[in-house]
Amino acid sequence: MTRILAVANQKGGVGKTTTSINLAASLTLAGRRVLLIDLDPQGNATMGSGVDKRSAKVSIYDVLLGSSTIAEARLRSSGKYDLVPANRELAGAEVELVDLPERETRLREALKEVQAEYDFVLIDCPPALNLLTVNGLCAAQAVMIPMQCEYYALEGLSDLVQTIKRVRQHLNPGLEIEGLLRTMYDPRNTLAQQVSDQLQQHFGEKVYRTIIPRNIRLAEAPSHGMPVMSLDRQSKGALAYLALAGEMLSKPA
């Protein structure tokens, strides 16, 4: 059965796109069929997957507005997973979506045509609680929340949890939290350890055992247009995302 995950956090710079790209590549290396949907107008997941966002003829913008299908928009990425690209056009989609019927569920409807072809669909949501993110949450079965272990992250997390509850109430009753992923983790930082402990107290088994460390290779990979495992598979960052994929695959379906 296809697992559809929204990778979401309204706080920027928490490793959301890094997680989307490298988890997609790790699951592909584990022999799974993966589709990554870039739902962020910045198009960072597109560029980090080795696709030039400026030259993409069809993007997720066209899919949401109904002028193209996902099958027409998808491309093969440098990480060997399929990608639906995004670019700046998507920034205008929110205004255009407002007047369209079923505006919150257009991505869910578009996915129905192709989701059976994949084991995993990952949706890289923008760093905002807007209509694009709501489309991602409505299309998904569960939400993966990457977050840094710092004080403000906890504050933002409560906002996101409330949004997930509202979406579950009104639009997507089956939506759940897949897990919380600690990213850019520095074990020498006392505050990081304290926040990590708080997360485990509040969310228990929802916190992934795998922790993504601060790692220079992870930071360098996007400039090469490839996942970190294509750049340096033995780096700490690559090993962490491969471990995360393994942890996810070992969970009972």
Total number of strands: 8
Largest sheet: 8 strands, mixed
Number of domains: 1
SSE order, as H and E?
A: EHEHHHEEHHEHEHEHEHHH
Shape: globular
Span of the ends, CA to CA: 9 Å
Mean pLDDT, all residues: 94
Structural category is alpha/beta
- CATH architecture group name: 3-Layer(aba) Sandwich
Binned strand content = 15-25%
Describe this structure as you would to a colleague.
With 253 residues, this protein is an alpha/beta fold. The chain has a single domain (3-250), classed as Rossmann fold, CATH 3.40.50. The protein is built from 12 helices and 8 strands. It has helices at 16-29, 44-48, 60-65, 70-73, 89-97, 106-111, 131-139, 151-170, 190-203, 216-220, 228-231, 236-250; strands spanning 3-7, 34-38, 75-76, 82-84, 120-124, 142-148, 176-185, 207-213. It has an 8-stranded mixed beta sheet, with helices on both faces. Helix 8 (151-170) links the parallel strand 6 and strand 7. The radius of gyration is 17 Å and the shape is globular. The termini are close together.
Q: What key phrases describe this protein's structure?
A:
alpha/beta, 8 strands, 253 residues
Topology:
Elements: E1 3-7, H1 16-29, E2 34-38, H2 44-48, H3 60-65, H4 70-73, E3 75-76, E4 82-84, H5 89-97, H6 106-111, E5 120-124, H7 131-139, E6 142-148, H8 151-170, E7 176-185, H9 190-203, E8 207-213, H10 216-220, H11 228-231, H12 236-250
Parallel strand pairs: 1-5, 1-6, 2-4, 2-5, 6-7, 7-8
Antiparallel strand pairs: 3-4
Helix pairs in contact: 1-12
